[in-house]
Amino acid sequence: MPSSVANEGYKYQSSIGSRNTSSGSPPVVVPNVDVDVVDESIAQLQLDTHHAHNQDAVVVSNKLRSAWKVKGSSLSLNTHNRIRNIVEALKIKPNPLKPMIPLSIGDPTIFGNLKAADETMKAVLKSVESGKFNGYAHTQGHEASRVAVAKYSAHQRIDGDIDPNDVVLCSGCSAALEYCILALADRGQNVLVPRPGFCLYHTLTEGLGIEVRYYDLLPELEWRADLKQLESLIDENTAALLINNPSNPCGSVFDKEHLMQLVDICERHYLPIIADEIYEHFVFPGSHHVAVSNLTREVPVLSCGGLTKRFLVPGWRMGWIIVHDQHKRLGNALTGLKNMCGRILGSNTIIQGALPDILTKTPQSYFDGVIDVLHSNAQLAYKLLKQVRGINPIMPNGAMYMMIGVCIERFPEFKDDTHFVQELVNEQSVFCLPGSCFEYPGYVRIVLTVPSTMIEEACVRIAEFCEAHFKKESRALIEHNLLDDAHVDY
């Protein structure tokens, strides 16, 4: 008997299964209930099915297909990944004389210089060898795993006390975000998301008829939100405010004061918060991450996190949601959230089994080493690119990305940031992502997870490219009245 079934408390009764064996059919196995009740239920089910079949036959008989007419669902046809759409449309032929440097890939493991800790790997081996985690788990995740996440995330609560029942394990942070959005928003409603922002938010909503409304982040203010513009977007159909902190693609880290301003808006408009905090521990020296859920008891917060970035295991697909709702204001949305877990019956159980050891035994020195690499690369890239005419890097305070402004008027050969990126690849074999991927044209994004020698080489090539195409006095600049002292070196 499978242990997963036995654990559910089912019993088997061979006397029922022995009926009708003369037909050669296998025994029927049912839970241990009254035989007459089973017989009556089966008979009624067969009768209902027979009637339904006959009724359907009448309805369908005049609507038989005369040819193949398979159609994609509305959801599938209206689901798009903006990054893929833009990148795949580029006409790229990298310079064969220069090795490719892909500064576009948001996978910290791809270059081999950043690896999971030994303790993390050993925890998974222990989970596999135990043989205890090969079956299905509770749809929210194994209790011991949720307990571990609750303790690991205690900093997200004012009182430091998280009930494991408020933890939902998911297949990566992407699934966590999807569950939150789908639990809170219906077709015809809208969700507020940052611009520039991770394109997945749009991907998860558009096919379902949920509107995305973009609130602007201001580069001149270290990517803080434009609070006035944000509040103007709110109406009776606004389902939630999504906060991504630290930010992909900006690398910004909101301070406590700014987070309180966002909380205040949500409190006045009765809006729950979806907090994408997958980079919560990727913060550079001098900055400090504050979980938005730690700042309020009034506004319900769904915090999304996971192993992906901090533990450098994105392929393991282990994410989670932590529900912060002390006043029970989510209502049946919380029921809906937990119902969502039944869609794929939980996340990877092997990794669930390893979670307690991963979260408690991976040493702080390992995390510090990863941050040192990212921070050092950010400083190096900023130093080298700040000197380049026509572009303006913005120093990040966390995450693993840097946004670089491109004054496209200084490069009249290129139509926009996407064209700029395409030709940068073709000439210098350096691949960045255009800001258009994040609903923010006029910028490019680079990743900071590559080896330092690769960062340095990439910045040198970007500088060569910009110098080759930079025009100090172009017609475009004259037309836009940009020829003044303040713009000469940008």
Number of strands: 14
Biggest sheet statistics: 8 strands, mixed
Oligomeric state of the chains present here: single chain
The rounded Rg comes to 27 Å
Number of DSSP helical runs: 17
Low-confidence stretches: 1-43, 482-490
Shape: globular
Query: Per DSSP, what share of the residues sits in E-state strands of 2 or more residues?
Result: 5-15%
What class would the helix/strand composition place it in?
alpha/beta
Helix content: 25-40%
Order of adjacent strands in the largest pleated sheet: 2-9-8-7-6-3-4-5
- Average pLDDT, rounded to a whole number, is 87
What distance separates the N and C termini? 72 Å
Structural key phrases:
13% strand, eight-stranded mixed β-sheet, 490 residues, single chain, 38% helix, four-stranded antiparallel β-sheet, alpha/beta, disordered N terminus, disordered C terminus
Descriptive account of the structure:
It is a single chain. The chain has 490 residues and is of the alpha/beta class. Helix 8 (172-184) crosses helix 9 and helix 8 runs antiparallel to helix 12. A hairpin with an 8-residue loop joins strand 13 (433-434) and strand 14. Strands 2-9-8-7-6-3-4-5 form an eight-stranded mixed beta sheet, with helices on both faces. It has a four-stranded antiparallel beta sheet with strand order 10-11-14-13. The protein has a two-stranded parallel ribbon with strand order 1-12. It is built from 17 helices and 14 strands.
